[in-house]
Queue: 2 jobs
Job 1
Amino acid sequence: MSNVLRARRRLDLLQVVLFFVAVLLVVVADAGVTSQYRRKLEATVEMPLDADVFRVPPGYNAPQQVHITLGDQEGTAMIVSWVTANELGSSTVMYSEASPDPEKMELRAEGTHTRYDYFNYTSGFIHHCTLTNLKHSTKYYYAMGFGHTVRSFCFTTPPMPGPDVPFKFGLIGDLGQTFDSNTTLSHYEANGGDAVLYVGDLSYADNHPLHDNTRWDTWARFVERSAAHQPWVWTAGNHELDLAPELGEHVPFKPFAHRYPTPFWYSVRVASAHVVVLASYSAYGKYTAQWEWLRAELARVDRAATPWLIVLVHSPWYSSNGYHYMEGETMRVQFERWIVAAKADLVVAGHVHAYERSHRVSNVAYDIINARCTPVRTRDAPVYVTVGDGGNIEGIADNFTQPQPSYSAFREASFGHATLEIRNRTHAYYAWHRNQDGAKVVADGVWLTNRYWMPTDDDIN
Ligand SMILES: [Fe+2]
């Protein structure tokens, strides 16, 4: 063989190799990340009933399980909830901008109380009291328990809604009350958000014999350290259903609805965000109340006033985990078209006990006959994140489907929480923190640009 021929063959071979390298690079560039990080394989362990985080506050009939949530759409009302366990305590809340001393608090609100029976359990007296006409961005001291043992707390109201008002949300789901749950909450506290968007599945009381409702009490005492000081926006998950016909319990959401005074689907406006909360376990088919409401609600969103449109839902629409696979599919089919048309920025879900972030994709082209039923990159589409990784008793969901689908940008079977730090109308920093790292370590972070004001291709990683 001549030298010339040999050289040409070598060149051909080189070209073939280069071609395959190029193909490989394209594939790798487009692929998402399935994190190789492996948490220690250990069971999630419920914190025992005598754990310090569950301690009943001292004093006769002392208010316990104190938590607050937003009481109106503008951030000028706050609903304070608590339980008195020994006897029916006062439903009065005293509050003040000026004085942390309950004796000197000059503002007063009267609440109501309720209680419920669940099989062999009777709840304490559950109080709800709405504080109204609050000023924005203002620290308020508040107290309750008058007549018995008084406890006092404080919160800061959210800033007035506006297009460039910065705000930091915590994104937490499926928390439960294990040692991992405690780590998740502590890490969130260390990261310092202003309010929590909670995407459902709170106490996991229903995983205990007879749906042991004392676990609803312990859970609320556990999260009080955060939830009494900043609003938690609640979403209903499947572990809130507490349907148990075998126990004679036929009313869905009975413990949750008595304890958490928010509707199942609703919206709040906080700083520069319009937050829409959906209910995965309430009817959402065409003409249902939730369907009618969402259609009207999306028309009410004013991106000039609140640029960031965030949707909360329990069961994810885009999840590539085998756990709860496709459970959110019917709601996706029903609502995704509207959410893309509305240019929502972020859809936050829980339910699956792992972490995942999607690229901006949609799957709304399919019309029964055109076969276009694959998620495709869509600039107007939201990023979907699943943060059902709070650390509950059911453990981690570590069976991701293989290979990783193209819509999935990053996924990892670890516990943790996320934060969304809105800077202005165009930019927000989204970060996920795994529990095994220091609280401030970002395991998955991405700058999001607003879909209404600056719809750039921000989903390159
Ligand atoms: Fe769930």
Job 2
Amino acid sequence: MQWPLLMSHHLKVLIVVFSMMVDGGNGPVCEWSGRWNHIKKFLERSGPFTHPDFEPSKESLQFMLETCRILLIGAGGLGCELLKDLALSGFHNIHVVDMDTIDVSNLNRQFLFRPNDVGRPKADVAADFINSRVPGCRVVPHFKKIQDLDETFYRQFHIIVCGLDSVVARRWLNGMLLSLLVYEDGVLDQGSVIPLIDGGTEGFKGNARVILPGMTACIDCTLELYPPQVNFPMCTIASMPRLPEHCIEYVRILLWPNETPFGDGVALDGDDPNHIQWVYQRSLERAAEFNITGVTYRLTQGVVKRIIPAVASTNAVIAAACATEVFKLASSAYIPLNNYMVFNDVDGLYTYTFEAERKENCSACSQIPLDLHFAPSSKLQEVLHFLTESSSLQMKSPALTATVEGKNKTLYLQSVASIEQRTRPNLSKTLKELGLSDGQELAVADVTTPQTMLFRLCFTS
Ligand SMILES: [Zn+2]
């Protein structure tokens, strides 16, 4: 494998530049004797597991403490763990981005927050906590959406760590890092690569992965690994329920709209105890009919609100794995994870690491425009359906434009109500009727990426 060596070269250049800068300086403040002994054991001596090119030195620690800039995305369950792990590992220049405010239900595991903090931005409180608790650490909070920050912002970091619960946000960030890559004559300039360490958890399952954008598998290369939300087949729900969840889904999907217990057009509100109570009672009746046990009020609310319980220990393990990878990349002392680790402690404990492969025609990182095969008589609706339903694209609300007769034409756009209304009739028109031709370029914008994606329309007969 070439890339760890190259990366280590890239960072070593930075270390050298930095050492020149601090020579003759005052040295870091707020240090005490032995403070970094645990880290120095890894950085100032070699061992059987160190990187073959690693040379023990005192400069690695200085680089981590003073120069290395880390961006942490998310200050929730994974984010709190990550921020603590990174700060205590010697990373003192950390920016954290999170758009959420603290809810009382976060307090059991998001341990940087206290009851008094409820309602305040997670990023601000997490940064304050670490800054006051870890001397010398400078965490800069951004109470923002990742989409509100631009290229100049993302470009300033050496490594980005992600503790998000949203696939769309991950894909957007992945697209942003890919857009920062510089190619010269088709060859990637490795100095433009910002490694992305991505952690994710769901209940007792989690994963940690190392992504070198443009070099190793990106988020979209492995999109098929994020299955769409689990829905039970309707026939099971309607006629052959086996699980308590099937009974609750039956009441939610079939009984609620038919019986309209709280009036016509009143939607089921997972936060309204009267609504949940009604669903719970009817689910119990349904379960009794089929001799199914296990329907509880809590499960009812969980199914209706699609709650996946958050498990603090899973977050801790995945965050630790991610922070270790940040440490390995920043110090070049150890070979990074190659490149996808899964973790599961539902029953016993299981981990497995494999090398996710780049997808040759990945819509995000391959730089090859994708072909869309449709008959001229296909309707625009079918194209839209393909973009959202295809497991390798999974777009959310694609906006389509094309150049027709020399003019830029919006074929369909969902996010602005007035344009949606104006372009909706196009959905039932055929591609031919819309004036599109074979080989035509279609530009598609979507929330899953900061860049407009180009597709080539290939007519089938
Ligand atoms: Zn890719």
